[in-house]
Write a structure and sequence with these properties.
transmembrane helix, about 0% strand, membrane, transmembrane
C-alpha cells in the first residue's frame, strides 16, 4: 500500500497500513494464485461452450413476441386469480344470503330490497378493492414481476372484474326476486342498485388513473356512502330517489367508459412497446 493512496492524510494511511499488517498473517494460509493466460483462455472457452449448449438466443429473439401472445382474456384471468377461489366462494355465499334476506324483507313494492342491494353491492366493490390491496398472493406477484404490466392497468382490470361480478349476481338476484316477490317493480329495483354499483366502480376506476390506488379506494368509500343516502326514500321521496339514481348511473357509466378507454390505450401501448 502506497502512502497517500487514500484521501484523508498520513494518519489514515498509517492506520490502513497497520490494519494490513495485522490481517496479513491471518490471510497467509489462503494464498491465491493468479491465473495464467492459458487458464483464462480455457475458462472462457468452457463458458462459451456452456452458453452454446443452453442456446439463449431464441429466448432473446422471441422476448418481444411473448407480450403479443398474451391475450386480453388471459390477462383478465390472471387478475381474477389474484383473489383466489376462497374469495369467489365467499362472494357466492354473500349474494345467496343477500337475495334470501331481500326476499324476506320485501313488502308490497319491495321498498327494502332496493335499499339492501344498493347498500351491499357497492360496498362489496370497495371491500374487494381493499382486499386486492392487502392480499399477499405470491404467485400473482411473481407474474407481475416477471411480466411488468402497468400497475394502473392491473388495478383497472381488478375493479372491472369485481364490478362485473356484482352486476352478474345482481341481475340474477333481481330475476329471482321478480319471480318470488309480489308487487315488485323490477325496473326500479334494477336502476337503484345498478346506479350505486356503477357509480362506485366507475368513479373508483377513474380516480385510479388520476390519483392512484389509495385515493381511488377513498373515493369508492365516499361514493358508496353517498349512494346509500340517495337510496333513502323516506328522506328524499320516490321521485327524487329515482332521478338521483339516474344521475349516479350516468356519472358511473361515463367514468367507467373513460377509464376503460384509457386502460385499453395503455394496453395497446404496452403491447407495442419492445420488451
Amino acid at each position: 500500500m502506497r502512502p497517500g493512496q487514500y484521501p484523508g492524510g498520513d494518519r489514515l494511511d498509517s492506520e490502513l497500513m497497520e490494519l494490513e499488517r495485522m490481517i496479513r498473517p491471518r490471510l497467509a494460509p489462503y494464498p491465491v494464485k493468479e491465473p495464467t493466460p492459458e487458464e483464462s483462455r480455457q475458462l472462457l472457452q468452457h463458458l462459451l461452450q456452456r452458453a452454446e449448449r443452453q442456446d439463449p438466443l431464441p429466448d432473446l429473439e422471441t422476448r418481444g413476441v411473448r407480450r403479443r401472445m398474451l391475450s386480453l382474456g388471459q390477462f383478465i384471468r390472471l387478475q381474477m386469480g389474484t383473489y383466489g377461489w376462497g374469495f369467489w366462494a365467499v362472494s357466492l355465499v354473500i349474494f345467496v344470503l343477500l337475495t334470501l334476506s331481500a326476499t324476506q324483507m320485501s313488502q308490497g313494492p319491495g321498498e327494502s330490497s332496493p335499499n339492501l342491494y344498493a347498500l351491499i353491492l357497492p360496498g362489496y366493490v370497495v371491500a374487494a378493492a381493499v382486499y386486492g390491496r392487502v392480499s399477499g398472493d405470491r404467485s400473482m406477484r411473481l407474474v407481475e414481476n416477471t411480466v411488468p404490466f402497468p400497475p394502473a392497468l392491473l388495478w383497472l382490470i381488478r375493479i372491472l372484474v369485481v364490478t362485473g361480478l356484482n352486476i352478474a349476481f345482481g341481475v340474477l338476484g333481481t330475476a329471482l326476486l321478480a319471480l318470488t316477490v309480489r308487487g315488485m317493480e323490477p325496473f326500479l329495483f334494477l336502476v337503484h342498485w345498478l346506479s350505486a354499483v356503477f357509480a362506485t366502480g366507475g368513479l373508483t376506476a377513474w380516480v385510479l388513473f388520476r390519483r392512484g390506488v389509495r385515493p381511488a379506494i377513498a373515493t369508492g368509500i365516499v361514493v358508496w356512502a353517498l349512494a346509500a343516502v340517495v337510496q333513502q326514500q323516506s328522506f328524499l321521496g320516490a321521485a327524487a330517489v329515482f332521478w338521483a339514481s339516474l344521475l349516479l348511473l350516468a356519472a358511473g357509466l361515463a367514468a367507467m367508459v373513460r377509464a376503460g378507454r384509457r386502460g385499453y390505450a395503455m394496453w395497446k401501448a404496452w403491447l407495442e412497446c419492445p420488451a
